[in-house]
């Protein structure tokens, strides 16, 4: 089977095989990505993140059904943690999405993190592209259940939704850095539980403070453009009118608040499209993609060469005996390689 | 990165007994496999479609209800029809010894009955997966 040709024709098994090749870094993976790349860039990518048990999968299921009702095709990438000890994983997000399995307009793929710590897997971005090339209109990326600092999703998604539930801590939690800073849209799930209104109030306060402190620090923020999350700053400052992330109370299991959540997501997408932020985010993403491949390939190339010539072992011995240090060694290696 | 064995653990049929499936899923996880767990009351169509989307190497079905003579071969048929010829299909649960030859005839590679150590399921998969 010619995976690329079949994938572009709409063969679901070909899409599935392409993602496997990407995930396992098979020899043909790079070739597949090269051929798929020109067909990407059309899908809307929605990131869904939040703590374990917040209801991300259940909400994904409901949102996917709502998009299907609009006639849009949906891809879902659901990520669960890989064991750092055995490499095994239980990928259980499909349990909440069984109603979507027989819908031909939906394709769900579960992925293990396989050592990645940012809430995604290293290959999530390429899996998104495979679904994009396949022709999916909307691609949901559901992260692992996150703690406070797994924020890689913002690098992959056009719009990031943070799903929270009541009862997870006091208002200091709401002013901490990390995942609360990355939400374009907030959803308070299990809103029938105690504390939902309190959580909404605390989040509102945090988000209003954001808007205020940004006005105060606009100049210094502009200097922080080299920061890897620079597109977030851009997003908030573009065109002068800042986006104030909306908060929606939801009971996903009963489909309550889902329509309003979709409205919020669409409003955000309209906002970033009209203000040029979407283009800026996608430019930033292209840059990250290229640099990732560059760093990865150079690292692999140099490591392999050092291993082949035996220099790697030699350097390691010298460092261990404290005859030299890693910084000097790497500076020497870089000088030698760049001379060639 | 080396290939990682992916297993779909599925519960066909209408019984709600998933303890066995969960114990097996956990054992497979500990053996370093990626286990896609789909939950209770799956139709053969759902199992075959999930196997396709997840590109699994193994489908492991657990059943208590007694519907295995009907459901297991149906899954084998649908999976092969989808063009997944290499997938190893195994079953387990409360299945009478006398039913096993027919299931194997239908394309179920092995059937594990109550009392099977989880290690032998892991060993079987490692030895037979393609």
Query: How large a portion of the residues of chain B is in β-strands, by DSSP E?
Result: 15-25%
Q: Tell me, what is the CATH class of chain B? A: Alpha Beta
Strand order of the largest sheet of chain B: 2-1-3-4-5
Low-confidence segments of chain B: none
CATH superfamily of chain B: Cobalamin-binding domain
Mean pLDDT of chain B: 92
The CATH topology of the largest domain in chain A: Rossmann fold
- CATH architecture name of the largest domain in chain A: 3-Layer(aba) Sandwich
Q: Oligomerization state of this entry?
A: heterodimer
- Tell me the number of structural domains of chain A: 2
Query: Largest chain interface and its two residue counts?
Result: A-B, 30 and 30 residues
- From the 3D structure, determine the CATH topology of chain B: Rossmann fold
**Count of alpha and pi helical runs of chain A:** 14
What is the overall pLDDT average of chain A? 87
Brief synopsis:
The complex is a heterodimer of chains A (340) and B (130). By secondary structure, chain A is α/β, with parallel strands linked by helices. Chain A is 50% helix and 12% strand.
Q: Would you mind describing this structure in some detail?
A:
The complex is a heterodimer of chains A (340) and B (130). Helix content of chain A is 50%, strand content 12%. In chain A, strand 6, helix 7 (171-175) and strand 7 form a beta-alpha-beta unit. In chain A, helix 10 packs antiparallel against helix 12 (277-309). Chain A has a 7-stranded parallel sheet with strand order 4-2-5-1-6-7-8, with helices on both faces. Chain A has helices at residues 3-9, 12-23, 29-36, 56-69, 124-134, 153-156, 171-175, 196-216, 218-223, 230-237, 258-274, 277-309, 311-320, 326-339; strands at 44-49, 74-80, 89-91, 106-112, 138-142, 159-164, 185-188, 247-249. By secondary structure, chain A is an alpha/beta fold. Chain B has one domain: Cobalamin-binding domain (Rossmann fold). Helices cover 42% and strands 18% of the residues of chain B. Chain B has helices spanning 19-30, 44-54, 68-81, 100-105, 118-128, and strands spanning 6-10, 34-37, 58-63, 88-93, 110-112. Chain B has a 5-stranded parallel sheet, sandwiched between helices. Chain B is globular and about 40 Å long. Chain B starts with 5 loop residues before the first strand and ends with a helix. The mean pLDDT of chain B is 92. The interface between A and B is medium-sized, with 30 and 30 residues. Strand 3 (89-91) of chain A pairs parallel with strand 2 (34-37) of chain B.
């Amino acid at each position: 089977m010619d995976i690329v040709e079949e994938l572009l024709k709409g063969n679901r098994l070909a899409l599935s095989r392409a993602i496997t090749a990407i995930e396992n870094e098979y020899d043909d993976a790079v070739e597949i990505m090269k051929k798929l790349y020109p067909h990407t860039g059309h899908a809307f990518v929605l990131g869904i993140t939040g703590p374990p048990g917040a209801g991300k999968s259940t909400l994904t299921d409901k949102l996917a059904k709502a998009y299907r009702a609009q006639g849009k095709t949906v891809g879902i990438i659901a990520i669960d943690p890989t064991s750092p000890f055995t490499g095994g994983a239980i990928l259980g997000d499909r349990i909440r999405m069984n109603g979507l399995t027989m819908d031909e307009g939906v394709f769900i793929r579960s992925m293990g993190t396989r050592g990645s710590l940012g809430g995604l897997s290293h290959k999530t971005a390429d899996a998104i592209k495979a679904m994009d090339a396949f022709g999916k209109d909307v691609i949901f990326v559901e992260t692992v259940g996150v703690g406070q600092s797994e924020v890689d999703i913002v690098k992959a998604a056009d719009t990031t939704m943070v799903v929270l539930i009541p009862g997870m801590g006091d208002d200091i939690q709401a002013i901490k850095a990390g995942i609360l800073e990355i939400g374009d849209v907030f959803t308070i799930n299990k809103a029938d539980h105690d504390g939902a209104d309190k959580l909404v109030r605390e989040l509102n306060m945090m988000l209003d403070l954001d808007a205020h402190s940004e006005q105060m620090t606009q100049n210094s923020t502009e200097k922080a453009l080299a920061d890897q999350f620079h597109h977030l700053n851009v997003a908030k400052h573009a065109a002068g009118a800042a986006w104030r992330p909306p908060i929606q109370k939801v009971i996903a299991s009963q489909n309550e608040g889902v329509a309003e959540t979709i409205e919020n997501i669409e409003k955000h997408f309209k906002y970033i499209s009209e203000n040029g932020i979407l283009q800026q985010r996608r430019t930033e993403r292209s840059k990250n993609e290229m640099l990732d491949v560059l760093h990865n390939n150079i690292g692999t190339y140099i490591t392999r060469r050092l291993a082949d010539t035996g220099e790697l072992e030699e350097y390691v011995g010298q460092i261990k005996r404290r005859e030299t240090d890693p910084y000097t060694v790497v500076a020497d290696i870089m000088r030698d390689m760049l001379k060639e | 990165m080396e290939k990682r064995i992916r297993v779909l653990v599925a519960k066909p049929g209408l019984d709600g007994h998933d303890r066995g499936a969960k114990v097996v899923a956990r054992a497979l996880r500990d053996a370093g496999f990626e286990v896609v767990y789909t939950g209770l009351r799956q139709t053969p169509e759902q199992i075959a479609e999930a196997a396709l989307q997840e590109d699994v190497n193994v489908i492991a079905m657990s059943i208590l209800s007694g519907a295995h003579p009907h459901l297991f071969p149906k899954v084998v048929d649908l999976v092969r029809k989808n063009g997944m010829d290499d997938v190893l299909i195994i079953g387990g649960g409360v299945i009478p010894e006398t039913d096993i030859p027919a299931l194997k005839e239908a394309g179920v590679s092995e059937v594990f009955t109550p009392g099977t150590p989880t290690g032998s399921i892991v060993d079987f998969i490692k030895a037979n997966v393609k």
